[in-house]
Amino acid sequence: MDFFHTIFSVMYQFGDAFAFLVISCAGLAVIFGMMGIINLAHGEFIMCGAYVTSAAGRAGLPLPLAILCGALAAAIVGIVVERLVIRHLYQRPLDSIIATWGISLIATQGVLILLGPTMAGVGTPLGSMALGERSYSIYRLVLFATSIGLLGSLYLLFYRTRFGVISRATIQKPAMARALGVDTRRVYGLTFGLGAGLAGLAGGLYAPTMTMVPTMGATFIVESFVTVVVGGADIFVGAAPAAAVLAIIRASLTAWYGHLFGQIGLLVAVIIVIRVMPGGLSGFLKRFQK
Q: Could you say which protein family the record assigns here (predicted)?
């Protein structure tokens, strides 16, 4: 029985780490993988989703609807930011990095000034289950299932819908897409809004598990970038394997040596991948398939 408890505990930690990596990197992966924009304001879109979710939850909305409100709010903010700032920087990647970094600083300090250093959150739903001497949050299991559903939904959206076909065509061959009558500016705006909305969804999903502070996005940003870099340019081929590999590394090192060594393990992993596989896991898998 102790062996069973140990196996379940390890699998639970793996699922928790996998869900966190997938959910936190989805929005960043869409914006970077599909548009080539390195969005340093990713954490602030997550913070936006978390704050709106908490406010909506405390206003009386059921948690699922509050999470959707958080994702929608972040998506709207993302579309506005793309229209006002990002749209003018598609051919200037270094400038887009500086611009999104500036947006990050403005958002963090603006929330601190307007709403204060902390905000009342919502409690973690669904309670916990006991297994032996340990208890496990049921909501964490829901997050794992949500991460799987999110990966499947993104694949269906970009490979099985008209929007996905037009979006990929616009990203790969914008001049040809314009020649065929596609409004590429609108596609860029919607794609960036989708990425921001996914970041807001991450904030909303994890709002019940975290303290609401203006800098909470920093909790997600390192893991998000590490997962995207390890996964490579093709988010649909590389995201899931990258999250699985990194989840194993993080869960193992955290269980044996603590949270700090888990973070260090992620950074070491990305250094090794950049050195050995510059194209990330997606580039390696595609080359292997050939």
A: Belongs to the binding-protein-dependent transport system permease family. LivHM subfamily.
